[in-house]
Design goal:
Two copies of one chain form a homodimer.
Chain A (H helix, E strand, L loop, with lengths): L1 E6 L4 E8 L6 E9 L6 H19 L3 E5 L7 H20 L3 E5 L1 H9 L6 H12 L8 H21 L1
Parallel strand pairs in A: 1-4, 4-5
Antiparallel strand pairs in A: 1-2, 2-3
Chain lengths: 160, 160
């Protein structure tokens, strides 16, 4: 099964598709959807929606896993990230995907083993877990793969 | 031309359709989309999206006017309201509607003449401006009509 992980953002929205399987997960695709701050918000959301629609129709994930907005961030960012999350949720449901949401701490815990892990550690662990040799760039792509891996980790815990 | 005004919210999302014309605006439809707190957010957003889609296909508004999220509100509310706004924006663009956004203060200013107007004053002014005799209930419907009227007021200012 395929899982699409999302690190949501209006300027940069990371995505990562993994295949859950034995003996371990494989990275299928990862990247970043960028939108221009010169565009109005509605157009930027529309562009993200279209890119997500293309990704879902290409990879047919069963699950879309999304990182929750961090309340501690500044409110303006919280607003735009929330808008992105809302748009992606509806697009995912439209395509009959299951939706999973994880806090940043849950993602860090699942991928690096502790909730206080730094960006660089997450990046390294994602590469290790997925057997990716070259450095994952940009970091939003690694973060999105981490969200997808978080779904996978929680799923195996439930299965045990 | 028709304008769809939105007072966005996850539990209660007010909507109001007005027809802009001479000698004055007319109310066409108003109400509230309610979703249950027992449902997960994604399903609630999906329901709101479907209702908005129905309204747009029924009334074919040229403009969807949306009240901005109030930063001072608590963050949890800001997140859910922002999610609703994002979903509605994309749906409106999908239907080739123009999108207008107004702050609560702009809406109050346009409808009641001052930015500090109370809920009840807005309700009364909306009824007066649209020639509605019976009390607008619930208040979310009146608020949504106020947002649509705000678009109309700003439009005539630009035209002058």
């Amino acid at each position: 099964m395929f899982v699409l992980g999302i690190d949501p953002g209006l300027s940069r929205c990371g995505y990562g598709v993994i295949k859950i399987g034995k003996p371990k997960e494989k990275a299928v695709s990862a990247g970043v959807i960028r939108t221009s701050p010169n565009e109005v918000t509605s157009v930027r959301l529309f562009e993200i929606r279209n890119e997500i629609r293309t990704l879902i129709s290409e990879y047919r994930p069963e699950v879309v896993a999304i990182e929750r907005v961090l309340f501690q961030r500044n409110v303006k960012t919280a607003v735009s990230v929330s808008q992105v999350i809302g748009v992606i949720m509806v697009e995912a449901l439209d395509a009959d995907c299951e939706i999973a949401e994880y806090s940043p701490t849950e993602v860090k815990l699942a991928v690096a083993g502790y909730g206080g892990a730094q960006k660089a550690e997450i990046q390294t662990m994602v590469q290790l877990l997925l057997g990716i040799e070259k450095k994952l760039d940009p970091v939003d792509a690694a973060d999105a793969l981490a969200v997808a891996l978080c779904y996978s980790a929680n799923r195996s815990m439930v299965a045990r």
